[in-house]
Amino acid sequence: MSHLQTLRSKIQGDGCTCAPELWYHACCVEHDRCYTTGEDSEGARMTRAEADARFRACLQRCAPGLISSFALPWVYWAAVRAFGRRHWEPLDSESMTG
Q: 66-92, pLDDT tens digit by residue?
């Protein structure tokens, strides 16, 4: 296990920052971990855009119903694309941008 993977397992995240958790808590915590480490759950490097796309896909899988599985994930995705840049802080100083 890499150093970042070890740290990643200890990152709790704060869930869906400034947004209702609804059915999305696990997706929001995973997204927080990606933003903190710059890696996916397998330890592969990723860009911010990739992290946000995976976040949206997770939201779409987790929610019941058309509105919560289609419309809301796009709203959450748009919010992280618009306002998330300042939170993208991979632990590696040579972080990728997105």
A: 777 889 999 999 999 999 999 898 865
Report whether 47 contacts 96 (CB < 8 A): yes
Beta bridge partners of 45: 39
* Buried-exposed string 22-32: b where 16+ CB fall within 10 A, e elsewhere: ebbeebbbbbb
Q: Is it the case that residue 26 has pLDDT exceeding 70?
A: yes
**Calculated CA dihedral for residues 52, 56, 62, 64, nearest 10 degrees:** 160
Query: How far is Cα of residue 81 from the mean position of the Cα atoms in its chain?
Result: 11
pTM (whole model) above 0.85: no
